[in-house]
């Protein structure tokens, strides 16, 4: 099978980590004869903006639509307002391609540093399923009387029944399949329309899944519990904004931004899904060759799962754990002095030494 992958390296450390993700994909496609990849790279991002006054080509979405998946580094850089870079590239892709499921594992890998005392890899093992196309990031609102004394801004949240039902049902399906508990995170005490509605739909859909144990927390309590009792959480479903915030907290308790992977999924496969690490362009370390590529490599694994080869994501996770556990090849964010590409060298070496199941050997 030949897959067309649209590659958007983006800004800052984006190109540095995407290069490494592609090296791993190339290695895997040479040892697994079932598929290979055809990449088309797009130079979109903030540098492109400074020359063209737009973040992507006018027909950028049509170009991306032709791909089987999108592999993206990060966008955003000082000089271009963050709301421009986010809204004109990342968020339009998520919305136009109806990538309504954002999957973000918060999983403490073996060998990764954990800032919480006495917590093990079994205590921190969550899967966040974040609503990704509406909610607080619907982009609706108004700015009235700009610059005047009576200036007012209104930012609307949009929670549609279809939008809430489909993300919550997706999470229930995952929880049922994996025989895990499902926790909904909301804030119905203060957000008396949107989150009351969310809770109601969570309750309604839970009736269809009597075998799934459920919990429901307010977002402020949930953020406290993620630190004090992370073992309470297995599968978690939440809104766009809450999921964005809680998964950065999740990254912090599970080894840092350099390890946090993320996938924007259109489950119906009507449009391409997009795979990007959750970190940004890290301008503070860009160009130094020390960004940790592990999050991006794991993200490449999520892409392989989406394309139908979940055994490779498992293998990638296992390999990253081996490199972390041995501890001698680490980037500075994990306390070492290895370069970005040295991490990939180590990952590929481990992949090549691991037992590849018979059916994966190239013929
Ligand atoms: P950031 O995630 O870029 O950086 C936060 C901290 O984590 C920094 O200290 C950085 O050095 C570190 N870090 C991030 N990725 C790392 C990696 N792979 N290895 C080692 N350390 C890493 O978030 P920040 O600084 O808030 O945002 C920077 C820019 O990125 C902004 O323009 C923002 O809008 C954009 N951004 C883009 C995202 C995307 O494209 N998906 C997501 C988040 C932010
Ligand atoms: Mg974020």
Break the fold down into its secondary structure elements and pairings.
Elements: E1 2-10, H1 14-31, E2 36-41, H2 46-52, H3 60-65, E3 69-74, H4 82-96, E4 101-107, E5 125-131, E6 135-144, E7 152-158, H5 161-178, E8 182-186, H6 194-206, E9 214-218, H7 219-228, E10 235-238, H8 240-253, E11 263-265, E12 273-275, H9 294-307, H10 310-326, H11 340-353
Parallel strand pairs: 1-2, 1-3, 3-12, 5-10, 8-9, 8-10
Antiparallel strand pairs: 4-5, 4-11, 6-7, 11-12
The protein binds 1,4-dihydronicotinamide adenine dinucleotide and magnesium ion.
Instruction: Please bin the fraction of helical residues.
Output: 40-55%
**Number of spatially distinct domains:** 2
Note poorly predicted spans: none
How much of the sequence lies in strands comes to 15-25%
Tell me the total number of β-strands.
12
């Amino acid at each position: 099978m030949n897959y067309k992958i649209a590659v958007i390296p983006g800004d800052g450390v984006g190109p540095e980590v995407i290069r490494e993700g592609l090296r791993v994909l190339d290695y895997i496609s040479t040892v697994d004869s079932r598929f290979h990849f055809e990449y088309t790279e797009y130079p979109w991002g903030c540098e492109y903006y400074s020359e063209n006054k737009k973040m992507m080509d006018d027909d950028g979405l049509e170009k991306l639509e032709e791909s089987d998946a999108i592999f993206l580094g990060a966008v955003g850089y000082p000089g271009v307002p963050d709301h421009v870079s986010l809204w004109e590239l990342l968020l339009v892709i998520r919305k136009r391609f109806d990538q309504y499921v954002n999957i973000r594992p918060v999983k403490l890998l073996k060998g990764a540093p954990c800032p919480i005392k006495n917590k093990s890899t079994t205590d921190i093992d969550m899967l966040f399923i974040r609503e990704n196309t509406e909610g607080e990031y619907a982009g609706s609102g108004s700015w009235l009387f700009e610059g005047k004394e009576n200036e007012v801004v209104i930012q609307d949240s949009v929670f549609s029944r279809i939008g809430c039902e489909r993300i919550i049902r997706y999470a229930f399906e995952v929880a049922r399949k994996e025989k895990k508990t499902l926790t909904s995170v909301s804030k119905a005490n203060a957000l008396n329309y949107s989150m009351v509605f969310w809770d109601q739909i969570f309750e309604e859909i839970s009736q269809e899944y009597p075998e799934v144990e459920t919990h429901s927390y307010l977002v402020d309590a949930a953020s406290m519990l993620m630190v004090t009792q992370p073992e309470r959480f297995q599968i978690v479903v939440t809104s766009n904004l809450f999921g964005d915030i809680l998964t950065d907290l999740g990254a912090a308790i599970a080894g840092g931004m350099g390890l946090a992977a993320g996938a924007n999924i259109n489950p119906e496969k009507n449009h391409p899904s997009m795979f990007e690490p959750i970190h940004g362009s890290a301008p503070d370390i860009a160009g130094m060759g020390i960004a940790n590529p592990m999050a991006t490599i794991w993200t490449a694994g999520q892409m392989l799962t989406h394309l139908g080869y979940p055994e490779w994501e498992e293998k990638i996770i296992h390999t990253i754990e081996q490199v972390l556990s041995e501890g001698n090849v680490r980037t500075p964010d994990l306390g070492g002095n290895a370069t970005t590409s040295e991490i990939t060298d180590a990952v590929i070496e481990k992949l090549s030494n691991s037992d590849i199941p018979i059916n994966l050997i190239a013929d």
